What we know:
The protein has helices at 9-17, 21-43, 47-63, 73-90, 101-104, 114-123, 127-136, 139-150, 156-163, 167-191, 196-216, 221-224, 246-255; strands at 232-234, 258-267, 271-280, 291-299, 302-309. It has a five-stranded mixed beta sheet with strand order 1-5-4-3-2, covered by helices on one side. The chain is elongated and about 80 Å long. The protein has 13 helices and five strands. The protein has two domains: 9-191, no CATH class; 196-309, Nuclear Transport Factor 2, Chain: A. The chain is α+β, with helices and mostly antiparallel strands.
Amino acid sequence: MRPLQPLTDAQLTLRAQAGESGALGLLLARHQAGMTAVALSLLGHGSDAEDAVQDAVLTALSRIGDVREPDAVGAWLRAIVRNNARMRLRSKRRERLGLDHLDDARLLPHPPAGEAHERAVEEHALRGWIRHAVDELPERLRLVVMLRYFTTLTSYEEIAAACDIPLGTVRSRLNQARSRLARMLLDSADRFDEGAATRTESSRAEALATLAAWESGGLPAEISQLWPAHSRMVGRLARPGHRVHPVPVMRHYLEDGVRQHLHRVTAGRDIDIWEMTVTTDHGSLHHCPPTLTWLMFRRDRRVERLRVLYPKGHQPAPA
């Protein structure tokens, strides 16, 4: 199998535009140094430069869909920082940075109606991450964010009255929330597996090669090595007290006229799931269902255990 290659900026941008927060987080982590350099060059060392980068992170969250040249996403991110820094230099009193840019990005396009806010969020590609991220905030921060961005109580004065807190506290809490959300988005890169798509395609190729090889009577070396001698069946096709290797079991069904056709692949770090449709030759001793699923537990890509899952109520005949 070919080694997994890191995803390019363009690939990460497209995946972020499709709603993968981790892809956006990884993009931001890659370009954070360049973004910080721009902020420092314009604002000097201090909290203003850090805030400009954090604001740019949240702007990217809301406006990643605007990127038309995915290969140039690094320049796009630095331009956001530059614009934010210049706005700070012009007038701190006119700041509309950070999460407030969600309004500009048409995530929350029509402030007067809380229902419109809600509908716009539901239509946003990263809505799942936004919902989760807001839920992860402490209650005192979560409340002001929810009021500000998901209700009709959008002004600082209205939020202060609703929460019974001073106006300055509203501003302070919104700033804290923006900072936390920016950090959460950057941290999502640590949990994002940029090889996921490549791994799925590799698993799909392996599944097709495995099925084709069994049809022809044998497994090629690169496939055979993924099923070492210690591989074993578990579940309904296993024999209690005996170690049963998966290859002869599956070949037994094949020789009896059971044909499996790959339908869908889901690949993880150490678990692969192959969903199959099934056809059975006339006269076969086995009465298989129209679908079944292979659940494979791996170590270093080699299969340690295979469990074949059948539809509820189906009892497979033993091999």
